[in-house]
Write a structure and sequence with these properties.
single chain, 152 residues, mainly alpha, Rossmann fold, three-stranded parallel sheet, 5 helices, 5 strands, 11% strand, globular
Length: 152
């Protein structure tokens, strides 16, 4: 069972967003995404976005939307987000919501490209396996006209 979309949980601090997000993520086997956790991880790993965010966070200021959105976009590109994701307290602003909405078609296109590449690799592998096996003569199916190849 998968979500096939992003689920957004909103509410005041302490309302239980994180608790519910973990439960739903576990049930649907999708990642629970918290921008706070993602920021802390980026800083600890010393990534480009982490280096940009660190001084802002150290001053106690909010990290600008452009950094947050780049981080979210990168995270949504990960394979584990293909079946959907759960956001805990994000988006926080209307511009973030609009940018997240604009990312969805790009994300779907990326997923389709990944699936096509994977299918192409599987198809090549199947073709290589068939080439290594002896074949019966091809014959045509009477209803569809599709050619089939028998394998002994």
């Amino acid at each position: 069972m998968s979500l096939n979309r992003a689920l957004i949980l909103l509410g005041p601090p302490g309302a239980g967003k994180g608790t519910q997000a973990k439960r739903v993520a576990e049930r649907y086997h999708v990642p629970h995404l918290s921008t706070g956790d993602m920021l802390r991880e980026a800083v600890s790993q010393g990534s480009e976005l982490g280096r940009l965010a660190k001084p802002i966070m150290e001053r106690g200021e909010l990290v600008p939307d452009d950094i947050i959105m780049r981080m979210v976009e990168e995270r949504l590109g990960c394979a584990d987000c293909e079946a959907g994701s759960i956001f805990d307290g994000f988006p926080r602003t209307i511009p973030q919501a609009e940018q997240l909405d604009a990312l969805q078609p790009v994300r779907l296109q990326h997923i389709q490209q990944q699936r096509a590449r994977a299918a192409g690799g599987q198809k090549r592998e199947a073709e290589e396996q068939r080439a290594a096996q002896p074949h019966a003569p091809a014959r045509e199916l009477p209803v569809t006209g599709c050619a089939i190849q028998g394998v002994h």
